[in-house]
């Protein structure tokens, strides 16, 4: 005790107290505070980017979900549509869509007269307000039910992309000054017809469920068929990569001897996960199309290529999930007399399942958004124009995929396609988010920690 | 469980691949992205008016399309290749080696290539080929001497042009448009500006001089665009001083953002291109494998529909979109109807 007091008396009195911070502590604390601000700034930058990105996507893409229609009473004169008058479908089909243009012009003139709109525009110019799909729509109705020939029917026809853009604020009178597709005079007519209720805007179901359209009619294009293409591709990916991936990882994790060879395989699986997807595209072109002679542009081939891309992701996450199951489970199972295989399939695999499924879903989400390999196997272009008729044809008939469709739209000349590309991105993002949320729920609900 | 799934899916894939050998009922088309809009318009109308499904039109460029076309005959190969340039002799040879001997060449019309700039940018309203050559070539003639191009502004070589920095976005070498640009603008400008004569005077033969004319300056004033016109448009939108090279149809769809320059005093329009007054234009083609006619349903009907007056005529939807209709369309229609191959027509 005395030593201690003596020591205390001899030692220089400490200048610091725990209440008063010395210089170094203050410096350290300041560094910590600074670091916190850096961190917050980093998060804030990330959030700002996300908000700007999502804001831009929504702002540019939302207009694609509404569409302008013009409701017209169209007279279907027998003299033009069925010259022989015998209502023979083969005869009626001989009148092509070009034969319907006159009828549509007449219907527009009548609509203008009925609503008291004055215009000295030529009939052919008037028709520029309507999409060129109008003729096909009326022709299809006539072919489906020839008995309507000779009557007057009400049709809800798509307005042209310029008229649609005007109602959405994309097209103005100034921007039309040098545009040969539409004139300012058309917009005056549209204004009056809108007041009369002939021109109206409503939700665009055909954007979500419809097929792709040609470059001259962006108003008709939809993402539905390429959505089916993506669906069939994902089915192929799921049916191939899940069993192969899980089997490979179970073998590597539980059964394989640890030697040079399995090490090599492991390293290469990690390497494969980092291979750019375009490489798999070239491989797909060379192997599946040129060597095996699978059909071009088919979702089956796309699915096979994406399977190659997804496999490493699934193997790596499955192995991690298997590793996370504690050895005591295996030991207990083996201890009560289970074979190695029984221990794996009855105990380890079920416990690892949530992790495996999470990895699979994330791998699928990655594959869903992949465009590069599809470039090489011919899934980009004007392809998704007719929905597949049946499951086999869904796998084999040419189709596009959602990201490929978006890329294709973004390339096209008409500014209305630009809007459609953003709209497509919204739909793709909704799919990806749903898949990721399912993965999170699976992990939260079922994953066990030891 | 997973082994069962594995076998099940393996069987499914085997079954599916077995049916892959069955007949194809869709016309398969690939090739030039310049022809793609027109082909898609025809394909759509074809699907509407005929009992055949709409053909599949892939994009990827003239060369890629012709390469696919020449891979051979059979249902796994494409039926039609779209091209924004005539097929080359080397390609015909490759085709022949792979058994594609009877090729029908169909000229669908002409495409104009225009120089356009941002609508609010400097007044680039009139160009001569020599102006473009002086702005973009690697070597130009100054005071009668051939020197490395150091022009930084347009008005340095032509006082009528605006006092603005030179910046041009031209199609990359993989585009068919580049060839037309070189042939119709750079070569013409090379001759007009006296550079070609200077090249020849420096001891080059005509061929080497022609090649030297096509060399583009590499100091960043001329940028190759390997993407599509949408990429050029995006670059133009962010550079007020820049000019870009576009197809006529693309320009006509974006008149609110772009203003077009005249070439040798001629405004690029359907009429001036059809008459041949506007110098920078090129024919567009598609090529049909004759061996596939009668095997692939709808192939000949599609070709005939493409060149019909309703589609390809001067008032048809293709002309409306920006294609310059071929004055000799009737001849082309006859050629398609008679399935005249290139050899017999040559």
TrEMBL record, chain A:
Biological process according to GO: phosphate ion transmembrane transport
PANTHER family reported for this sequence: PHOSPHATE TRANSPORT SYSTEM PERMEASE PROTEIN PSTA, PHOSPHATE TRANSPORT SYSTEM PERMEASE PROTEIN PSTA-RELATED
Domain ABC transmembrane type-1 positions: 227-439
Subcellular location: Cell inner membrane; Cell membrane
Single GO MF annotation: phosphate transmembrane transporter activity
Family of this protein: Belongs to the binding-protein-dependent transport system permease family. CysTW subfamily.
Primary subcellular site in the record, as a coarse category: membrane
Transmembrane segments: 35-58, 227-252, 272-294, 300-322, 343-365, 421-442
Protein's UniProt name: Phosphate transport system permease protein PstA
PROSITE patterns hit by this protein: ABC_TM1
Membrane topology according to the record: Multi-pass membrane protein
Top-level taxonomy: Bacteria, Pseudomonadati, Pseudomonadota, Alphaproteobacteria, Rhodobacterales
Pfam families reported in the protein's UniProt record: BPD_transp_1, DUF3333
Coiled coil: none
Keywords recorded for this protein, A-Z: Cell membrane, Membrane, Transmembrane, Transmembrane helix, Transport
GO cellular component: plasma membrane
From TrEMBL, chain B:
PANTHER family linked: PERIPLASMIC PHOSPHATE BINDING COMPONENT OF PHOSPHATE ABC TRANSPORTER (PTHR30570), PHOSPHATE-BINDING PROTEIN PSTS (PTHR30570:SF1)
The keyword Signal is annotated on this UniProt entry: yes
UniProt keyword rRNA-binding present: no
Species per Swiss-Prot/TrEMBL record: Pseudooceanicola albus
Protein name according to UniProt: Phosphonate ABC transporter substrate-binding protein
Cited Gene3D superfamilies: Periplasmic binding protein-like II
Residues spanning the signal sequence: 1-22
Residue intervals of the PBP domain: 17-310
Alphabetical list of InterPro entries matching this protein: PBP_domain, Phosphate_ABC_transporter
Matching SUPFAM superfamilies: Periplasmic binding protein-like II (SSF53850)
A family per Pfam: PBP_like_2
Key words of the record: Signal
């Amino acid at each position: 005790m005395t030593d201690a007091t003596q020591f205390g008396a001899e030692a220089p009195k400490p200048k610091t107290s725990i209440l008063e911070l010395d210089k170094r502590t203050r410096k350290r604390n300041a560094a910590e505070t600074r670091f916190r601000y850096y961190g917050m700034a980093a998060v804030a930058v990330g959030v700002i980017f996300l908000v700007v990105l999502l804001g831009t996507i929504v702002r540019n893409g939302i207009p694609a979900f509404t569409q302008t229609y013009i409701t017209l009473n169209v007279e279907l004169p027998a003299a033009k549509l069925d010259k022989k008058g015998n209502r023979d479908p083969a005869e009626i089909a001989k009148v092509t869509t070009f034969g319907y243009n006159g009828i549509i012009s007449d219907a527009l003139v009548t609509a203008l007269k009925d609503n008291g709109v004055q215009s000295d525009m030529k009939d052919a110019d008037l028709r520029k307000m309507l999409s060129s799909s109008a003729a096909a729509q009326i022709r299809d109705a006539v072919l489906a039910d020839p008995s309507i020939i000779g009557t007057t029917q009400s049709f809800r026809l798509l307005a042209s992309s310029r008229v649609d853009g005007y109602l959405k604020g994309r097209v103005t009178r100034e921007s039309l000054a040098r545009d040969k597709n539409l004139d300012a005079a058309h917009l005056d007519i549209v204004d009056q017809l809108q007041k009369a209720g002939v021109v109206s805007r409503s939700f665009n179901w055909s954007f979500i469920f419809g097929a792709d359209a040609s470059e001259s009619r962006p108003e008709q294009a939809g993402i539905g068929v390429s959505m089916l293409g993506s669906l069939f591709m994902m089915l192929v990916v799921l049916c191939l990569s899940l069993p192969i991936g899980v089997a490979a990882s179970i073998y590597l994790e539980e059964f394989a001897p640890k030697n040079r060879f399995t090490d090599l395989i492991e390293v290469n699986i990690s390497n494969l996960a980092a291979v750019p997807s375009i490489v798999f595209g070239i491989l797909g072109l060379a192997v599946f199309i040129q060597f095996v002679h699978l059909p071009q542009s088919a979702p089956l081939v796309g699915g096979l290529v994406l399977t190659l891309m997804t496999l490493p992701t699934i193997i790596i996450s499955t192995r991690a999930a298997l590793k996370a199951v504690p050895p005591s489970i295996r030991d207990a199972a083996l201890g009560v007399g289970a074979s190695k295989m029984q221990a794996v399939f009855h105990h380890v695999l079920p416990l690892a399942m949530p992790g495996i499924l999470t990895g699979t879903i994330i791998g699928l989400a990655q594959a869903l958004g992949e465009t590069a390999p599809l470039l090489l196997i011919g899934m980009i272009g004007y392809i998704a124009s007719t929905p597949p008729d049946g499951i086999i044809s869904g796998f084999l008939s040419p189709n596009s995929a959602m990201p490929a469709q978006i890329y294709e739209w973004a390339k096209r000349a008409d500014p209305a396609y630009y809007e459609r590309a953003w709209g497509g991105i919204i739909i793709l993002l909704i799919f990806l988010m749903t898949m990721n949320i399912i993965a999170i729920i699976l992990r939260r609900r079922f994953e066990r920690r030891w | 469980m997973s082994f069962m799934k594995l076998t099940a899916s393996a069987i499914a894939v085997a079954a599916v691949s077995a049916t892959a050998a069955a007949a194809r009922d869709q016309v398969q088309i690939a090739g030039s992205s310049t022809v793609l809009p027109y082909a898609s318009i025809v394909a759509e109308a074809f699907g509407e008016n005929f009992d055949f499904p709409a053909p599949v039109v892939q994009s990827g460029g003239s060369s890629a399309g012709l390469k696919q076309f020449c891979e051979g005959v059979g249902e796994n190969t494409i039926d039609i290749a779209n091209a924004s340039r005539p097929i080359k002799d080397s390609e015909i040879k490759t085709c022949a080696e792979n058994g594609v001997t009877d090729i029908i060449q169909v000229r669908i019309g002409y495409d104009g290539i225009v120089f356009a700039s941002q609508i609010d940018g400097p007044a680039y309203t009139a160009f001569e080929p020599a102006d473009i050559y002086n702005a973009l070539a690697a070597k130009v003639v100054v005071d009668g001497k051939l020197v490395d191009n150091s022009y930084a502004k347009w008005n340095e070589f032509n006082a009528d042009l605006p006092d603005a920095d030179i910046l041009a976005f031209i199609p990359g070498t993989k585009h068919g448009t580049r060839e037309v640009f070189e042939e119709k603008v750079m070569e013409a400008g090379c001759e007009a500006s006296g550079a070609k004569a200077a090249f020849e005077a420096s001891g080059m033969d005509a061929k080497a001089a022609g090649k030297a004319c096509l060399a583009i300056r590499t100091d960043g004033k001329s940028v190759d665009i390997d993407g599509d016109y949408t990429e050029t448009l995006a670059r133009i939108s962010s550079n007020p001083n820049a000019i870009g090279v576009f197809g006529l149809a693309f320009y006509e769809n974006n008149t609110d953002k772009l203003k077009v320059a005249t070439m040798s005093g001629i405004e690029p329009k359907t009429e001036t291109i059809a008459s041949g007054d506007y110098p920078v234009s090129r024919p567009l083609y598609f090529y049909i494998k004759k061996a596939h006619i009668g095997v692939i349903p709808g192939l000949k009907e599609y070709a005939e529909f493409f060149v019909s007056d309703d589609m390809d005529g001067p008032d048809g939807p293709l002309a409306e979109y920006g294609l310059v209709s071929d004055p000799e369309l009737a001849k082309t229609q006859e050629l398609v109807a008679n399935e005249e191959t290139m050899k017999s027509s040559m």
